[in-house]
Amino acid sequence: LPIAAVAVISLILFVNAFMTSVILPFIAFMVSDFGVAENPDEVSRWSGWLMSSYMFGQMLASYFWGSLSDRIGRRPVILFGLSACSITCLLFGFSTSFWMAIGLRFLNGAVNGIVSVTKTYLSEITDDTNVGQGFSLLGLNRALGMIVGPAVGGLLCLPAEKYPAFFPKGSFFDRWPYALPTTICFFISVAGTVAAYYVLEETHSVGPLSRTSTQNTDGQANLNIHDDDDDDATALPAPSTPQRLEAGLAAPPTGLMALLSDSSVLLTIACYALVGMNYVQYDELIALWSRLQPDEGGPGFTTSEIGMLYSVGGIGLFLYQIFCFAPVERRLGVLTAFRMGVAATIPALLLLPYCGLLRPTGGVLQWTAISLCILLRMVMGLQAMTCTFIMLANATTPATRGAANGLGQMTAAMGRMIGPIVVGSQLSWGLE
């Protein structure tokens, strides 16, 4: 693997995971402060809409960014995505109303073409000998983001309440209690943008082809095709009209139609969308359920405790991605590893609500049980998701890989948009 490029891609993926997860510990508290919910039981529903707005933006724009990277290259799309995301993430912390927050999260998702294009970039700098190792970076850096992001969000939101010696009453971050975590996110994103600008090289050939017609000695047209950067031209006989018609009728579909007509691509994208929807549902459920008081069936955690809870799962995920994922993928094969990941998450999904019953027996037992559920879900869920990235790369060609990853990200974003709305509404309904 090219070490410099891999290091920068790792930083970019970390930035993206950090940006996504930094709001998880405080999103329900932020919605409650906005006063948009008529009663506390409604907070979960409104939080679901706020979470979904990011995915709605991604759903609308992901295919565009992936397809654009096939036309203008991977590097400019990555640089623009990092720059735009850093600004929208910063502004989110200064939201003065629920609707301002939902608009900024929508924009943050709409300008974020990072994940789909970096997946394409990774597929173009890896080969069959190191593809598992390369794509494990996606999970590894998501794990790092899930360690640092929630910890920063949980520990540094509402700083005037937690650290009055450093942030006294009436200070800047007292007036903007959720801006400190997003400000840190902004500076990390800027660092990623600068590193990408100086280190990443373009991996996708986008030089336009020029065409000129000449005439051969027999009077038949030739078609000269050459790269704009190349002085040499190749003269090819231009096909006759019947030949062109026949070729046109026999030509396979291209672009989006080529992807939609490929069953392997469609099945892989469907798996990615379903796993992604389930993953974000669980992330939001932890954030909303953890703040519920024991009489409501939850553990009654604070923002700091919720942030640390995510970080514990992220540490386990980080270690698994370093030491286990690539050997498991090589030994079992990508399809079996995917099935294993999906099946192993079921117990974590079923057992989490019952952890709320452990409160009377002591905090340590409850913390351990919740951490194990989150750890199993994160590790196996991300194993399944990483396998879908590899399967999609295997099912596409370099010419369509950017569009395919964009389509996959768009479809996954659709699932992730629906998931939080469903979970938030169901939890509010259950509490009512």
TrEMBL record:
Record's keyword terms, sorted: Membrane, Transmembrane, Transmembrane helix, Transport
UniProt cross-references to SUPFAM superfamilies, sorted A to Z: MFS general substrate transporter (SSF103473)
PROSITE patterns found in the cross-reference section: MFS
CDD domains associated with the record: MFS_SLC46_TetA_like
Domain of life: Eukaryota
Recorded GO MF terms: transmembrane transporter activity
Primary residence: membrane
Record Gene3D superfamilies: MFS general substrate transporter like domains (1.20.1250.20)
Polar residues: compositionally biased ranges: 210-223
Compartments where located: Membrane
Domain Major facilitator superfamily (MFS) profile: start-end pairs: 5-432
TM region(s), chain numbering: 7-31, 46-65, 77-102, 178-200, 300-320, 332-352, 364-392
Entry-linked PANTHER family: MAJOR FACILITATOR SUPERFAMILY DOMAIN-CONTAINING PROTEIN 10 (PTHR23504), MAJOR FACILITATOR SUPERFAMILY PROTEIN (PTHR23504:SF117)
Protein name (database record): Major facilitator superfamily (MFS) profile domain-containing protein
